[in-house]
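REVIEWER CHECKLIST
Item 1: Sequence provided? yes
Item 2: Single chain? yes
Item 3: Sequence as submitted:
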Amino acid sequence: MKSGFKNFGLVMIGGAIMFAFVTIARQSKNSKADSIIENKASQNAFNDAKIVRTSYASSPQNVDFVEAAEKTVNAVVHIRTEISHNGYNSNDIFGTLHQYFHGSPYPGNMPIMEGFGSGVVLTDDGYIVTNNHVVDGADKIEVTFNDKRKLTAIIIGTDPTTDLALVKVSGQGFDHIVYGDSDKVHIGEWVLAVGNPFNLTSTVTAGIVSAKARNINILGDGASVESFIQTDAAINRGNSGGALVNTMGELIGINAAIASQTGGYEGYSFAIPSNIVRKVVDDLIKYGEPKRAYLGVEIQEMTSELATEIGEKEIKGVFIARTVEGGGADEAGIKKGDIITRIDENNVNSLSQLLETVGQHRPGDKVTVNIIRDHKPHVFQVELKNQDGGIEMSKQKNSFYNEALGVTLEGISTTDKTKLGIKNGLKIVSLSDGVLMRGGINKGFILMVINGQYVDNQDDLNSALRNNSNKSVRIQGMYPNGMKISFEFYN
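Item 4: Structure as written out by the authors:
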């Protein structure tokens, strides 16, 4: 590739020299006086020219990364996780039978898997944001700060649809990063990627914003929000969950992925925009789960073929293929065939841009939607709704202990229900000695039906357990990997 550019450059230079030679030869008959006049005119024109430099187009050598680095390196931490395995598949029927009859799983030490990543401290009392894939399934989370302090963290909440998770360590006075406005980030803007990989203390790399609203289909779920900031700042393994900051040291993204054929950095890295991060983190603190808002439309991205088909001269906006009955867009008067061009202050030309803009809001928020209908512009005020068509945002219920089953249970978030394809259930978060433990059931199992009654909360469970006139309890449920189990036991 480089040799190609060299050859190209040589061709251009050679052409310039040849052109100059011919020109000089043709002008050899001109007088010296004419040449002197021309040279003076050229010199005066050069002296009169004004050099204009805009405030945002400074050359690389004029960019100072020192202040931004100093503001951020101590607020980016190393995260080490441990995931325990029972020495057999927790859903292996032979393993569960062995534990039922012998009171323990297969003999031998339980192997431990380790994972690594980075995290960003957001508050002085120890809230840390990272990627969901960094802490997913972790039994233990250890956080190492830039000054080599090590603290244990607990998970506050997770959001697989954005690949974000919030953890917390105990303490006060932690260095932390302030949010920037990712909507105002420009392509070509200088950024720093700050990570804490492999426990080497914080490292900083620089690059520019290459693109915005990138959908790289990495989360693999139709409900996922993918609208990444693309940058060429070098990011490698262990940097997942680290910070992408502007030259003022403000957080504009959480580094999540790289495009690579080898597993190493090859020039493309992707970060979750800070405006989405801020909203998800606030939700996890206030409600224990993310509160997704929906516009209530199915869209199709505009193409030249679609524009020609519907008679539009410009290829812009997103085409509404269907509105959800009773959804926010439907109730506001938006119809199938309309073209959304703008939501609030943000232009919308792709699904990613629409998801990013709506993803910054909660059910009940109102947004201004600009559309084109019959080649004419219209403006609508739309109240966003939740997945169930309402605007309620109740806080996730706390866990509770059931003595009859010997388990601590908690409700399942709407996000997890959607991900698992279920409508109800109670997840086991811990077990003590009891019928379920003796039956080989493990942490993470989801109770869905007891004695023929669907259970989704503590009242449902108590009612279902009372419904056992023959002194038996019939349980149906599943593990998160999709394996379903049904069994019956007697009191």
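Item 5: Key structural point noted by reviewer: Confidence is low (pLDDT under 50) at residues 1-59, 86-108.
Item 6: Recommendation: ____
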